[in-house]
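Practice problem 4.
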């Protein structure tokens, strides 16, 4: 879904040649209608759409379930990128971009959302994660996590007690050797808002000053401030 027909055509062509079935929408309302009629495996969404902006489309799509969303934007401002992540986008690509790069991003997101069928459930105080179904519950209530939030939580659950820098989390969780470190900060904050009883006083995802973050599988309270 892109506000520029030429960009949309090029993106659709590259994704089709990569083996994906592509459904294009010209504006926000039609994108929502198509997503509701045929739930997609992934949505590539332009920030600037006619009829309804991409942020609102993303909010509504994410409100219906955990569909991965990659946001396209012509804006290079950090606030715009963070806002896209805040409303639930799993990744973003800034125009102008290489269509081949976008295909690789799509492949990466989809690969993360298709775990091996032999994975066992993971647990933390009050939280249960099913990696196969990609389902998270807190105190028996299912949580709506984005693909990137889910991957971060699973990584923390599998590696409790060790402090990781933001650079390490970008590389180990999402396979990026470079990128905006604020992406990690945003997703930690969003994850805390969903799995912590009090996000301002996190028990599970702990800040390690001068380093990054550590997951406390026992959920012990720390006197430190969330960042």
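Answer key:
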């Amino acid at each position: 879904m892109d506000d520029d027909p030429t960009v949309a055509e090029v993106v659709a062509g590259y994704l089709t040649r990569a083996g994906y079935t592509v459904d294009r929408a010209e504006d926000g309302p039609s994108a929502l209608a198509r997503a509701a009629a045929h739930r997609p495996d992934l949505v590539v969404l332009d920030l600037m759409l006619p009829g309804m902006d991409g942020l609102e489309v993303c909010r509504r799509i994410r409100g219906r379930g955990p569909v991965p969303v990659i946001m396209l934007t012509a804006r290079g401002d950090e606030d715009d990128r963070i806002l896209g992540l805040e409303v639930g986008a799993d990744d973003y690509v800034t125009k102008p971009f290489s269509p081949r790069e976008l295909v690789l991003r799509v492949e990466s997101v989809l690969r993360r959302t298709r775990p091996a069928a032999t994975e066992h459930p993971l647990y933390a105080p009050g939280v249960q994660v099913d990696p196969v179904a990609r389902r998270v519950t807190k105190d028996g209530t299912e949580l709506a996590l984005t693909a990137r939030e889910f991957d971060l939580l699973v990584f923390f659950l599998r590696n409790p007690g060790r402090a990781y820098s933001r650079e390490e989390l970008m590389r180990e969780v999402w396979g990026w050797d470079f990128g905006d470190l604020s992406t990690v900060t945003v997703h930690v904050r969003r994850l805390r808002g969903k799995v912590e009883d009090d996000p301002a006083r996190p028990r599970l995802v702990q800040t390690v000053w001068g380093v990054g973050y550590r997951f406390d599988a026992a959920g012990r309270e720390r006197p430190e401030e969330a960042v």
